[in-house]
TrEMBL record:
Residues 1-23 form the signal peptide. This is Fibronectin type-III domain-containing protein. PANTHER family: CYTOKINE RECEPTOR, INTERLEUKIN 5 RECEPTOR SUBUNIT ALPHA. One of its GO terms (cellular component) is external side of plasma membrane. The lineage of its organism: Eukaryota, Metazoa, Chordata, Craniata, Vertebrata.
Amino acid sequence: MMFRVWDTTLMICFSVSLMFVGADSITALPPPENLTFKWETPFTLNLTWEKPKDLRQNCKVNYTVEVRHSQNCSEKPKLDNSQTRRVQNTSCKFNISNVNGLCISVTVNPENCGNKNPSPPLERSLSRPKVLLVTNRSYEYSHERLKCTWTPVADIQDLSFYYWSHKNETVIKCNEQKIGECIIHSAFLKDEPEMFYLFNGTSNGERVNNTFRDERPPHYVKLNKPKLKIQRSGNTLLFKTEASDLNEFKSCCYICNYTYSMCDKIPQERLRNDCEDGNEVVVDYDSNCKYTARVQIIFSERCGAGKSDPSDEVEYGENRDPKLLALLAVIIIPLIVSCCLIVSLVLLRRHKDIIFPKIPEPTLIFKDILINNIRTTEDLRSPADDRLYVPLEEIVESKISLEPEAPLVLNTTDKQV
Ligand SMILES: *[C@@H]1O[C@H](CO)[C@@H](O)[C@H](O)[C@H]1NC(C)=O
Ligand SMILES: *[C@@H]1O[C@H](CO)[C@@H](O)[C@H](O)[C@H]1NC(C)=O
Ligand SMILES: *[C@@H]1O[C@H](CO)[C@@H](O)[C@H](O)[C@H]1NC(C)=O
Ligand SMILES: *[C@@H]1O[C@H](CO)[C@@H](O)[C@H](O)[C@H]1NC(C)=O
Ligand SMILES: *[C@@H]1O[C@H](CO)[C@@H](O)[C@H](O)[C@H]1NC(C)=O
Ligand SMILES: *[C@@H]1O[C@H](CO)[C@@H](O)[C@H](O)[C@H]1NC(C)=O
Ligand SMILES: *[C@@H]1O[C@H](CO)[C@@H](O)[C@H](O)[C@H]1NC(C)=O
Ligand SMILES: *[C@@H]1O[C@H](CO)[C@@H](O)[C@H](O)[C@H]1NC(C)=O
Ligand SMILES: *[C@@H]1O[C@H](CO)[C@@H](O)[C@H](O)[C@H]1NC(C)=O
Ligand SMILES: *[C@@H]1O[C@H](CO)[C@@H](O)[C@H](O)[C@H]1NC(C)=O
Ligand SMILES: *[C@@H]1O[C@H](CO)[C@@H](O)[C@H](O)[C@H]1NC(C)=O
């Protein structure tokens, strides 16, 4: 009984002390203080803050810094909407755009500080620019030229367009500027890891700037419309692409997308990687089919993004239905032939007399000649006789008499007599 009481008391004491230790361990670190920011360039934000004052001497911490593209810090972070960095210093830089405003948050993490939890974040929001200057930005890249286009939103007289060169670490003004369009020429465009653009101007006497971050130029590759050539080679067709601008990147960056249909069936697709000028794909050829084909060049996603316009449609061959031909051969032609035969037979019967006039029976003529000949050999001894042909009297019908049968009856009576 005594042991039991001791046990429970010990147990309770142990639990209570554990609870105290646990409560101590889950205390969070205090947040950082005095967060300030400075735009070092139109695209580079320098953040500085201070270590919380009430930290124990031996407590080592580091910081998580997050910058989100939203001026509303209570909005939940979206994917692909923020940059996060973990640093030991009380300062860090971000290359970032300002057009949607920013929410900056800094958290203190214990690195070697006993059992502590990270601090709640210190947040600061940067509101978005007062005026949105442009919208609808789009890009087309080809051969060291990047064509940028946009739609101006506000009526800004001195609207200027700049871009950031990572190589050069400078802001460069685009000189070839028209309304809503500018072309950047640079050999470095291909190698930029990302692109930053600045639009600025004066609105109601105030200087306004908008900065944007976009993909690197190979994500906006624009290829010329190719030409498709179809050639026959035995039982196959060769689809050939003719395009002159597939030389800027490695050949594995270009894909030829051939779409063709034969005999008006559902279009089929044939892809060819390593697409270059003059490259071809081989397709089985059915000579009873009409082929229609076109080609489009796709810039591989391994290298970036983009495509050409589809080529004009090219046709090859004729549609001939082999079943119809067989049907014609097997049924219709014999049908026509027999029809002709029947018709000609009927006509023949009807107009027999005209078509075949009556000619004497050939057997008679032969017999006649034969008999005549025999007579002549007999008559050779009497040379006085003429060797003329004397036609035999026709005796065929002479024996037929249409008299009544009375004589027959008479005959019988004769016999009886
Ligand atoms: C933050 O700034 C205020 C005023 O400038 C100063 O009194 C305070 O000590 C600073 N905090 C830290 C942690 O340095
Ligand atoms: C851009 O505008 C912001 C205010 O929206 C201002 O703080 C910043 O200094 C401006 N940057 C440039 C390069 O003009
Ligand atoms: C900020 O976002 C939250 C959550 O989306 C929303 O409730 C709040 O109204 C927003 N505040 C502003 C000023 O837009
Ligand atoms: C941190 O700051 C120290 C001096 O203040 C500097 O030498 C060091 O390069 C900085 N480190 C980083 C990662 O910024
Ligand atoms: C930010 O600017 C401060 C001076 O304003 C400088 O001491 C600090 O080194 C800068 N931070 C970075 C990461 O360069
Ligand atoms: C910050 O501290 C954590 C431990 O809490 C550690 O894992 C991390 O590597 C540290 N980061 C830096 C940049 O020192
Ligand atoms: C965006 O640009 C396209 C042409 O580039 C145009 O047709 C369209 O109307 C524009 N949209 C807006 C909202 O200005
Ligand atoms: C920001 O851009 C500069 C210049 O292009 C580059 O040197 C630096 O590494 C970039 N910083 C970050 C954090 O990406
Ligand atoms: C850097 O920019 C300057 C001025 O715009 C230009 O003269 C120079 O050629 C550029 N250098 C590079 C490497 O882009
Ligand atoms: C636009 O930005 C450039 C580069 O930062 C600057 O030289 C120019 O004065 C700015 N113009 C206006 C109107 O803010
Ligand atoms: C090839 O082109 C056809 C027709 O334009 C399209 O439907 C298909 O998605 C394309 N294929 C690829 C891999 O892009």
